[in-house]
Amino acid sequence: xxxxQEVITADVLIAGGGTAGCSAAIAAAREGARTxxxxxxxxxxxxxxxxxxxxxxxxxxGGLQNEVDRRVKARQxxxxxxxxxxxxxxxxxxxxxxxxxxxxxTMLGHLIYDVLVExxxxxxxxxxxxxxxxxxxxxxxxxxTAEGDVSAMAGASYSVGRQFDxxxxxxxxxxxxxxxxxxxxxxxxxxxxxxxxxxHSPSAEDVSRAYQEGRRHLLxxxxxxxxxxxxxxxxxxxxxREGRHIVGDYVLALDDFLHDRHFEDVxxxxxxxxxxxxxxxxxxxDFAQIWLVMLDMTEKKGLWCDxxxxxxxxxxxxxxxxSSRALSVDRDVSMAIRMQxxxxxxxxxxxxxxxxxxxxxxxxxxxSVPDLQRRLVELGxxxxxxxxxxxxxxxxxxxxxxxxxxxxxxxxxxxPPAEALTLARLLAERLGAEEQALAVWWLRLLGERAAEALxxxxxxxxxxxxxxxxxxxxxxxxxxxACGAPPEVELASGACGAPTSGCRMAAMALALLGxxxxxxxxxxxxxxxxxxxxxxxxxxxxxxxxxxxxxxxxKALAASEIVAALHEKDYNTGICSMLLQYLxxxxxxxxxxxxxxxxxxxxxxxxxxxxxxxxxxxxxxxxLSVRWNLQMRTGIIVARLGLGRQGRGLCETWLxxxxxxxxxxxAKALERIESNTRTETFEQRGDNAG
Length: 690
Description:
- By secondary structure, this protein is an alpha/beta fold.
- It has four domains: 6-164 and 242-279 and 302-387, FAD/NAD(P)-binding domain (3-Layer(bba) Sandwich); 170-234, no CATH class; 395-557, no CATH class; 566-690, no CATH class.
- The strands form five sheets. Strands 1, 2, 3, 4, 5, 6 and 16 form a seven-stranded mixed β-sheet that branches. The chain has a three-stranded antiparallel β-sheet with strand order 10-9-12, with no helix packed on it. Strands 7-13 form a two-stranded antiparallel ribbon.
- Strand 9 and strand 10 (187-191) form a beta hairpin.
- Helix 3 (64-79) packs across helix 4 (88-101), helix 16 (470-482) packs antiparallel against helix 18 (519-527) and helix 17 packs across helix 18 (519-527).
- The radius of gyration is 27 Å and the shape is globular.
């Protein structure tokens, strides 16, 4: 690298001129800080401008973005775009003018390649530009890069992707298109946002490949004749939904998001829902399976959430704030805390905090949070009630007696036994009715104190099935009688001969408490392939029962039953991922003499043509295959069954794949095989020694 050509000094350096960066830079400059905005791209504005995702999806209003949106609307009228989405040039030009008016020095085409750290504090960066390396020194740096690049280079800890295989959210490559307005018949500006595959976003190699992959999907779509659109352009940037998650002073947790926990250091409010694009939920978190598979919470209901200032402070690093989708949140929370409106507000808050730190000559960690909050209230980023609220609309009932109560995890945990039982009975009455999934969630939080009410529900609900195995029926009857159901109460099934909806949901709730009384009903649901869900996009109830059995630690289903289920039908990838996950948990129970036969059956299934090719429905804009993923999980299981060479071979096949994310997943699968082998060898030695 050549010698530094120029040294620039500033009060505040904003790294990244995207969704958060523009707001941060304008806010810092308006607060009086000499501000430099650095971006490797040739335009500012983030995903709305560069990735063609120019339509807001959830998120909360307020602050600087309200001014930006008004100006963008006026500008796009001039440019000819009068539809709901914004014209990309409208937002880009508005941001450019605001940055210029505030005196922000904007430096495009500059790639940060190193971070200057002195005594544990970030004091600037080195960036490569058209004229060579440039050193930018600043009193406070705000990392608004989508991947948290500055934080990572400064030594902050981070995570990437899900636990099982390291794979991140799917990305998009959006074309800007013209469609006929169904009301007027005139052409209108629109976008097409579709899942194009997976990318390991910290890798330049994989990002480069993803551009070509996305364009292939677009060409295939246009050639297929499935759509009648006029394509104007393809986004110059990928729409990447997930990359690094920086570990900050506080990692915003799932319960914080779901139950809208109030933080004393709140600097913004977010509004979204659990917006995962994953369809292979057998590879996702336990929460994803509880929420979407067991409870079928697929409705897009927005939830409010505090963003604490501590989530903007990278752990162990001074002089730095992180303000982008890389901020410090749990991975499941990141599915929600990534909407443009919310990221714009978080960026503005970070810019104000950075300017305040400079003005008071303190570290960002030492900024007075009450003073920061007062300024954010003045700017409209926060509202006064946000600072003192004690309740929330999240996860509350809307109908019936429960709608009159404000529930919270803290309240539920502190209820005396009698009141907890009363609440549990009210919740159990909702099973099989409207808001039953919400009732199960709160029953889960009540814990063992809800067991009596749930067992009573088993007694009320006709729970057995005429076709169920005798031990299942006996188990259901035992559970009902144990909670006081008199002999004259008939425990026969409903008209369809299957456990009723209320009984099935009671079994789900009991499973989340780890109660074995749920097992007979869940086994029947699985073995009968029962499904009473109307939404064709939902996971069927028999798979929900499978998830419940795994989460309660039940190994009552034999591995042979799971392999048989895989062979019986070409189930979609989501169902297959759930079957394989359960199979991995029970394969250690297989008798030695049965292992080879079971492994061979699984290998035969995984080699069938088309496995993993139905990740998305046929009508989807891009057809994606996860054959690689299913074969890796199969390889892990086969190795555990004793066919180590074949299992490793399935995974090693994918080590040469062109996709970095797939190669990383294959490496993790092989590590898992080796770890399992070491563990089993150690256990065998222990048994022999005993």
